[in-house]
Fold each of these.
Amino acid sequence: MSARCHYCTHYSSAIIVASFLVRMEPFSHTFQALQGGFDIPERMFHSIGKEWESASRDNMGDVRELIPEFFYLPDFLLNSNHIQLGQATKRISVFTFGTAHVVNRGPKVKTI
């Protein structure tokens, strides 16, 4: 008998939230406490595009939700605390975020 539900996994949990916010305290410590340390660099959150591809095309079991910080706290993409997260084998640094330069632009304010 197949499961009578849309998804057989939870869409949000403490580890999912901490994995998105791992570059900010206290979430880096929360991630380490839940995971037993940092994950291997290839599995660390380093690209919104890669997360989108995973959830929408590549992995139908990936049902994570966007956390509210995506909409109001772009600083979570920065690594202001210089936490050493490693480097993936394809030379992708997970220390910084792929689109962190966008965060530094700030809002455009028009004065009258």
Amino acid sequence: MSDEKSLEQQKKEAAQKAKEEAMRRIAEKKSEATEEGAISPEKTKEELKREAAAKAKEAAAKRLAEKQAQESGESEEPAAEKTKEELKREAAAKAKEAAAKRLAEKQAQESGESEEPAAEKTKEELKRESAAKAKEAAAKRLAEKQAQESGESEEPAAEKTKEELKREAAAKAKEAAAKRLAEKQAQESGESGEPAAEKTKEELKREAAEKAKAAAAKRLAEKQAAEGESQQEGPEDIDVAKQKAAAAAKAKAAAAAKAKAAALAKQNRESGDAEGSADDEKAKAVAAAKAKAAAAAKAKAAAQATAGGGDADDEKAKAIAAAKAKAAAAAAAKAKAGASSDAAKEKEEQKPSPNQPYLDKYVKVIKEHLGDVLEDSYINRLSKDVPTLVAKQDTYYKIAEFLKFNEQLSFEYLSELHGTDFVTHMEVYVHFYSYKNRQSVALKVKIDRDEPGINSLAKLWEGANWPEREAYDLLGIKFTGHPNLTRIMLPDEWVGYPLRKDYEPYDVEV
């Protein structure tokens, strides 16, 4: 060769020739496809591209090898030798660039774009660019819409992301809701625009309770005032009202006595007691006489009310005397009925209870192990003949513990516990059950009413925890050793114990 060329120039020439050859083959293939009408559907566009790229690589590599062989044989000073692998990599890279360039040109021709192809980009880059453009367009449209709705200026604000726009919209909605709530509260309370200091839940409760008490006191005062106004009416109207009330009370009492006598007569007829039947007849006669007397008194009161005369004090005295007589008659009838029922009970008590052997067994075992610790024992016929043990106040816990842990008794389940106010004293009643023996027993103890207190059974039976709290809450009985002796139904600030016979409501609302 007259003019030696560098290796780089030779590479460029080889690449250019490979490119021209590839373009020529593509043009020939296109002309053939145009003549045939369409490309065979057997191969996809991607497969054709891969095949063309592979063929272009092979042709380029072949030509490059031939040219290098010619140049290495002709030139006296060969260029720096390169390995076969490096040459292959360079040829492959150039073939890829040529194939990508041809693909870009083809896409430009198909889409009607200009003849100068744009910068080559991969499929992933094109996707990312199109997604970014779509996001920018959407954000721009959203900004323009918000600007139109708010009436802002034509110059759009700085573009914001979708998340920032969402946060701003949520913040604006919260501010608007808070503003509306504040306005509503201000309108309801009628107070000034400056809100008062926040109050605790307890203070609000106290204020509500005070308001309720004040309202109740106001209603009570209004009622008392109305009653006072009614009392200011004339003495004749008061006397007439008293007479009518007395007559109505007599009639009501007579009807009640008649119903009671009828029920008693029916019971005696079923039992076949001749004496009871005679008593029923007497009771009926007494009730009829009382009803007749009540009717006469009612008629007399009505006549006096119509006449409008009579001395008020005399009528009052008569009403009192009639009430006393009526009470005495009712007491006599009750005593007679009680005597007959007591006789029937005595007959029933003559039959031994099926649980008497169990009671005898319990008393015997307790006396053998604990000594004289029981105050009394009996069969409670009013409660399914349950054997009942009455403990002394100082032996109550000891007996309960023995009932649970003794192998012969084994009362491991506490089914019920409650307290009762008998005015003169209080009682605590406990019911136990033995799953081992399938038997029941009741244990009760009498305690002082002024200072009611007894040992807690919560250490022995967990089931005694809440019932003891209930007895404390409603009766004021204090259980020594209880793990948490507090009110269970009423609030801690409640005054008094509602199940005591002398309970008086402290709260005016009750």
Amino acid sequence: MPEFDQPIPAPTTDSGQDQGGLWAKVNPFNAESMAKAEKQSGELLESAKGGGFPVSENAGKDLQDAITEALGDLDEIMYEADGLAEEPKLGTGPYAKQVAQHVQQSGNGPRGILPMLRKLRTVLEQSEEALKIAMRNYHEAEEQQKQTFRQ
């Protein structure tokens, strides 16, 4: 059975040459990649909470809209993919049972698509929260500057 955490093979040309490049380094269904993204979004959130960076409303609005849209799209994908959490009914023979278990594991197993989508949701939620805090930080800094000039 194939492993779902293996790198996706790089596309090749008609002559079989590896196109490599970025494709060879990117696998959105790789647990390690998702763990790194989750860690980085958590660090971004902590930095924002600590006042590490401000973001103006003008700069943040488009990012916020993109994250909101991505979360909506992800919700739709997760709703449609939810059926992958159950073993399909393929029959009672040993091979049918083996295939059904494999299909279920590819959907909701430790390295399945559903856990990866949940991690992606966490990344997006943490990024959204960090952006909101950073925008609030900018607004507060702007208000403090206004107070300084009023005195």
Amino acid sequence: MGATIDFLNVGFGESTVIRLEHGDESFCLVVDAGDSFVGDGARRCSPSDYVREYAISHIDVLVLTHFHRDHIGGVLSLLGGVSIGEIRLHVELPPALMSVELNRYDTPMLASLSMYAELLHKAKEMCIPICKMTRVNTLELGEVALTFLMPDPAKLMQLEQGLTSLDPARLDEQQDMLGWIDRQLNETAMALLVRSNDEPVALLTSDVGLDFWKPYEAEITGVCLMQAPHHGDRRSISEELLDKLAPRYIVVSADDEGTYQLPHLEFDQLIHRCTDAKLVYTEAIGTTHRIIRMDISNRRLNLID
């Protein structure tokens, strides 16, 4: 069975494609979709570019780890361009935000809210099933298993309460709450563990915080590849976590422009000081690859131009 994990260079943002092929049967799962515009450089590869170039006509599952624009913006161009079996998410917008046309792009958080509402409306119009995840869940796909790791329920409840408190007519007066929601989205993101033959292969970390991993330490120990949390944020990684995971590879999804000062220089220093892991960036100064590909079967990493 052919099984790969592709980390796309979407600039500052994240999008990962997991593909399984066995004879005439195939399965495609996309985790996040980068921003709405990934740039026109030759190194960039949006999810829409990817499905076109690899002649993918159907995505079985589209996973949204949280609704920051650098993770969901590219979904809108996928909708209608390729059929989607279902969308998996764990945070919905309250009726008050879904009942109006937000169309606010004057701050990053308002842009994220507006994009999320638009894609949810469009998915429903297209009758794409939306599955709200409420607990840890595993997709068993032969030798490969994909486990959705959920955030702290108390933090998730606080986020939902914050979203419910928003008044579409008074958003300009609720900047403090919007700022809190912005930060809380990272704290309540989903992560994804990829196993093969019951061994942990890859950990897709989205933007989760350091305390996310406590309930999952036994499951993730010894994982071969870890995606750096929050684009190489030093606050999202620790020497203790690195010792437990002992990854062979660490993939950093970031651009080469230092957006939001990420990845942190201290992150790189910690990795080199505490591990022998190979550190690979979706984009860095001088790189030419568009995709970082892991073969799930042999655990090898390749750079694809």
